[in-house]
Amino acid sequence: MSKLGNLGARLHRGEIGYDFVANRKIWYGLSILITITAIVGLAVRGLNMGIEFQGGAVFTTPKTEVSVSQAQEWAEEASGHDAIVQKLGDGKLRIQVSGIETKEADRVSAELAKDLKVDENQVTGELVGPSWGEQIAQKAWQGLGIFLVLVVIYLAIAFEWRMALAAFVALIHDITITVGIYALVGFEVTPGTVIGLLTILGYSLYDTVVVFDSLKEQTKDITKQTRWTYSDVANRSINSTLVRSINTTVVALLPVAGLLFIGGGFLGAGMLNDISLSLFVGLAAGAYSSIFIATPLVADLKEREPQMKALRKRVMAKRAQAASAPAGAVDEPLTDEVDDDAAAAVVGPRTQPASRSRGRGRPSGKRR
Question: In its keyword annotation, does this UniProt entry include Transmembrane (predicted)?
Answer without folding.
Answer: yes
